[in-house]
Amino acid sequence: KAGVTQTPRYLIKTRGQQVTLSCSPISGHRSVSWYQQTPGQGLQFLFEYFSETQRNKGNFPGRFSGRQFSNSRSEMNVSTLELGDSALYLCASSPYVDSRTDTQYFGPGTRLTVL
Amino acid sequence: SQQGEEDPQALSIQEGENATMNCSYKTSINNLQWYRQNSGRGLVHLILIRSNEREKHSGRLRVTLDTSKKSSSLLITASRAADTASYFCATAGSARQLTFGSGTQLTVLP
Prior knowledge:
The structure holds two protein chains of two kinds.
Chain A: E1 5-7, E2 10-13, E3 19-24, E4 31-38, E5 42-50, E6 53-57, E7 64-68, E8 74-78, E9 87-94, E10 105-106, E11 110-114
Parallel strand pairs in A: 2-11
Antiparallel strand pairs in A: 1-3, 3-8, 4-5, 4-9, 5-6, 7-8, 9-10, 9-11
Chain B: E1 6-7, E2 10-14, E3 19-24, E4 31-37, E5 43-50, E6 55-58, E7 61-66, E8 71-76, E9 85-92, E10 98-100, E11 104-109
Protein backbone atom coordinates (compact mmCIF):
# COMPACT_ATOMS: atom_id res chain seq x y z
CA LYS A 1 0.00 0.00 0.00
CA ALA A 2 1.18 3.49 -0.73
CA GLY A 3 1.81 5.63 2.32
CA VAL A 4 0.41 9.01 3.21
CA THR A 5 1.32 11.62 0.64
CA GLN A 6 1.48 15.36 1.12
CA THR A 7 1.82 18.13 -1.42
CA PRO A 8 3.62 20.37 -1.81
CA ARG A 9 6.71 19.32 0.15
CA TYR A 10 8.06 22.85 0.44
CA LEU A 11 6.36 26.20 0.28
CA ILE A 12 7.51 29.79 0.70
CA LYS A 13 4.93 32.50 1.26
CA THR A 14 4.89 36.08 2.51
CA ARG A 15 2.97 37.50 5.46
CA GLY A 16 -0.68 38.10 4.74
CA GLN A 17 -0.96 35.47 2.02
CA GLN A 18 -2.94 32.30 2.33
CA VAL A 19 -1.86 28.73 1.69
CA THR A 20 -3.52 25.37 1.02
CA LEU A 21 -1.84 22.07 1.84
CA SER A 22 -3.02 18.72 0.58
CA CYS A 23 -2.95 15.22 2.06
CA SER A 24 -3.87 11.85 0.59
CA PRO A 25 -4.34 9.15 3.22
CA ILE A 26 -3.46 5.47 3.00
CA SER A 27 -6.03 3.63 0.91
CA GLY A 28 -8.89 2.48 3.13
CA HIS A 29 -8.11 4.90 5.96
CA ARG A 30 -11.05 7.08 6.80
CA SER A 31 -9.55 9.50 9.30
CA VAL A 32 -7.09 12.30 8.57
CA SER A 33 -5.42 14.43 11.23
CA TRP A 34 -3.16 17.44 10.89
CA TYR A 35 -0.31 18.47 13.17
CA GLN A 36 2.01 21.46 13.30
CA GLN A 37 5.64 21.05 14.35
CA THR A 38 7.78 24.02 15.38
CA PRO A 39 11.03 24.18 17.36
CA GLY A 40 9.37 26.19 20.10
CA GLN A 41 6.02 24.44 20.55
CA GLY A 42 6.88 20.96 19.34
CA LEU A 43 4.20 18.79 17.78
CA GLN A 44 0.68 20.14 18.21
CA PHE A 45 -2.65 18.78 17.04
CA LEU A 46 -4.58 20.97 14.61
CA PHE A 47 -7.71 19.00 13.67
CA GLU A 48 -9.09 15.61 12.71
CA TYR A 49 -11.54 14.71 9.98
CA PHE A 50 -13.63 11.59 9.52
CA SER A 51 -16.34 11.10 6.91
CA GLU A 52 -15.93 14.68 5.73
CA THR A 53 -16.68 16.01 9.22
CA GLN A 54 -14.33 17.72 11.61
CA ARG A 55 -14.38 15.54 14.73
CA ASN A 56 -11.83 17.30 16.84
CA LYS A 57 -9.98 20.61 16.83
CA GLY A 58 -6.86 21.79 18.59
CA ASN A 59 -6.17 25.15 20.12
CA PHE A 60 -5.42 27.15 16.99
CA PRO A 61 -6.97 30.39 15.70
CA GLY A 62 -9.72 30.41 13.12
CA ARG A 63 -7.17 31.25 10.41
CA PHE A 64 -6.45 27.53 10.37
CA SER A 65 -9.14 25.51 8.67
CA GLY A 66 -9.50 22.25 6.84
CA ARG A 67 -11.81 19.95 5.01
CA GLN A 68 -12.08 16.35 3.91
CA PHE A 69 -13.46 15.10 0.63
CA SER A 70 -15.57 12.03 -0.04
CA ASN A 71 -12.46 10.06 -1.10
CA SER A 72 -10.91 10.86 2.33
CA ARG A 73 -8.33 13.25 0.88
CA SER A 74 -7.92 16.32 3.02
CA GLU A 75 -6.79 19.90 2.66
CA MET A 76 -5.84 22.44 5.25
CA ASN A 77 -5.83 26.17 4.70
CA VAL A 78 -4.08 28.93 6.57
CA SER A 79 -5.22 32.45 5.82
CA THR A 80 -3.48 35.74 6.58
CA LEU A 81 -0.15 34.07 7.18
CA GLU A 82 2.04 35.22 10.05
CA LEU A 83 5.75 34.66 10.57
CA GLY A 84 4.93 32.27 13.41
CA ASP A 85 3.09 29.96 11.03
CA SER A 86 6.42 28.82 9.64
CA ALA A 87 6.49 25.15 10.52
CA LEU A 88 6.44 21.57 9.32
CA TYR A 89 2.82 20.56 8.76
CA LEU A 90 2.23 16.85 9.12
CA CYS A 91 -0.77 14.87 8.01
CA ALA A 92 -1.62 11.49 9.47
CA SER A 93 -4.18 8.88 8.50
CA SER A 94 -5.69 6.08 10.51
CA PRO A 95 -8.32 3.40 9.89
CA TYR A 96 -10.67 4.73 12.59
CA VAL A 97 -11.71 1.28 13.75
CA ASP A 98 -10.81 1.07 17.44
CA SER A 99 -9.59 4.02 19.50
CA ARG A 100 -7.55 1.64 21.66
CA THR A 101 -5.47 0.33 18.80
CA ASP A 102 -5.72 2.79 15.91
CA THR A 103 -2.27 3.78 14.75
CA GLN A 104 -1.71 7.08 13.00
CA TYR A 105 0.58 6.92 9.98
CA PHE A 106 2.29 10.13 9.02
CA GLY A 107 3.20 11.65 5.71
CA PRO A 108 6.54 13.34 4.95
CA GLY A 109 5.18 16.78 5.82
CA THR A 110 5.00 20.15 4.11
CA ARG A 111 7.66 22.64 5.16
CA LEU A 112 6.07 26.10 5.14
CA THR A 113 8.26 29.18 5.38
CA VAL A 114 6.61 32.57 5.86
CA LEU A 115 8.76 35.60 4.99
CA SER B 1 0.26 22.16 24.60
CA GLN B 2 2.31 19.04 25.09
CA GLN B 3 1.18 16.15 27.23
CA GLY B 4 4.41 15.72 29.08
CA GLU B 5 8.13 15.46 28.98
CA GLU B 6 10.66 13.04 27.64
CA ASP B 7 13.87 12.26 29.38
CA PRO B 8 16.63 12.68 28.49
CA GLN B 9 16.31 15.49 25.94
CA ALA B 10 19.47 14.23 24.25
CA LEU B 11 21.32 10.92 24.43
CA SER B 12 24.62 9.97 22.83
CA ILE B 13 25.81 6.35 22.83
CA GLN B 14 28.19 4.04 21.01
CA GLU B 15 27.02 1.57 18.39
CA GLY B 16 26.05 -1.72 20.02
CA GLU B 17 24.97 -0.15 23.30
CA ASN B 18 21.38 0.01 24.50
CA ALA B 19 19.41 3.25 24.54
CA THR B 20 16.62 3.98 27.01
CA MET B 21 14.21 6.89 26.71
CA ASN B 22 11.50 7.81 29.18
CA CYS B 23 8.20 9.57 28.72
CA SER B 24 5.77 10.99 31.24
CA TYR B 25 2.22 12.10 30.59
CA LYS B 26 -0.55 13.80 32.50
CA THR B 27 -4.00 12.44 31.68
CA SER B 28 -5.64 9.05 31.29
CA ILE B 29 -4.99 7.34 27.98
CA ASN B 30 -6.27 4.65 25.61
CA ASN B 31 -2.83 3.94 24.23
CA LEU B 32 0.68 5.29 23.98
CA GLN B 33 2.68 5.28 20.77
CA TRP B 34 6.34 5.83 19.98
CA TYR B 35 7.52 7.51 16.81
CA ARG B 36 10.89 8.18 15.20
CA GLN B 37 11.72 11.27 13.17
CA ASN B 38 14.81 11.75 11.04
CA SER B 39 16.04 15.33 10.53
CA GLY B 40 12.68 17.14 10.46
CA ARG B 41 11.03 14.64 8.15
CA GLY B 42 7.83 12.68 8.69
CA LEU B 43 7.17 10.57 11.76
CA VAL B 44 7.65 6.83 11.50
CA HIS B 45 5.46 4.74 13.77
CA LEU B 46 7.45 2.31 15.91
CA ILE B 47 5.11 0.68 18.39
CA LEU B 48 1.75 1.08 20.11
CA ILE B 49 1.01 -0.12 23.63
CA ARG B 50 -2.53 -0.18 24.95
CA SER B 51 -3.39 1.17 28.37
CA ASN B 52 -4.07 -2.35 29.69
CA GLU B 53 -0.66 -3.66 28.57
CA ARG B 54 2.52 -3.37 30.60
CA GLU B 55 5.19 -4.40 28.12
CA LYS B 56 5.51 -4.91 24.40
CA HIS B 57 8.31 -5.99 22.10
CA SER B 58 9.00 -5.40 18.43
CA GLY B 59 12.35 -6.51 17.07
CA ARG B 60 15.03 -4.55 18.96
CA LEU B 61 12.41 -2.36 20.64
CA ARG B 62 10.94 -2.90 24.08
CA VAL B 63 8.29 -0.58 25.47
CA THR B 64 6.94 -0.54 29.00
CA LEU B 65 3.95 1.32 30.33
CA ASP B 66 3.13 2.16 33.94
CA THR B 67 -0.28 3.81 34.05
CA SER B 68 -0.10 4.29 37.83
CA LYS B 69 2.96 6.48 37.36
CA LYS B 70 1.81 7.83 34.00
CA SER B 71 5.11 6.92 32.42
CA SER B 72 6.55 4.82 29.61
CA SER B 73 10.00 3.82 28.49
CA LEU B 74 11.44 2.82 25.14
CA LEU B 75 14.48 0.57 25.04
CA ILE B 76 16.44 0.11 21.82
CA THR B 77 18.88 -2.77 22.11
CA ALA B 78 22.13 -3.13 20.17
CA SER B 79 21.87 0.38 18.71
CA ARG B 80 23.05 1.11 15.19
CA ALA B 81 24.15 4.37 13.56
CA ALA B 82 20.91 4.24 11.55
CA ASP B 83 18.95 4.59 14.82
CA THR B 84 20.16 8.19 15.09
CA ALA B 85 16.96 10.25 15.14
CA SER B 86 14.49 12.04 17.39
CA TYR B 87 12.10 9.81 19.29
CA PHE B 88 8.68 10.96 20.44
CA CYS B 89 6.07 9.40 22.62
CA ALA B 90 2.45 10.27 21.94
CA THR B 91 -0.63 9.50 23.96
CA ALA B 92 -4.14 8.96 22.62
CA GLY B 93 -7.38 9.14 24.50
CA SER B 94 -10.86 8.30 23.28
CA ALA B 95 -10.75 11.38 21.05
CA ARG B 96 -7.86 9.81 19.09
CA GLN B 97 -5.86 13.02 18.77
CA LEU B 98 -2.23 12.43 19.63
CA THR B 99 -0.56 14.52 22.30
CA PHE B 100 3.20 14.44 21.91
CA GLY B 101 6.07 14.63 24.30
CA SER B 102 9.00 16.94 23.71
CA GLY B 103 11.19 14.24 22.19
CA THR B 104 14.60 12.69 22.78
CA GLN B 105 17.41 13.27 20.30
CA LEU B 106 19.38 10.02 20.06
CA THR B 107 22.84 9.98 18.49
CA VAL B 108 24.50 6.62 17.90
CA LEU B 109 28.20 6.95 17.26
CA PRO B 110 29.87 4.41 14.93
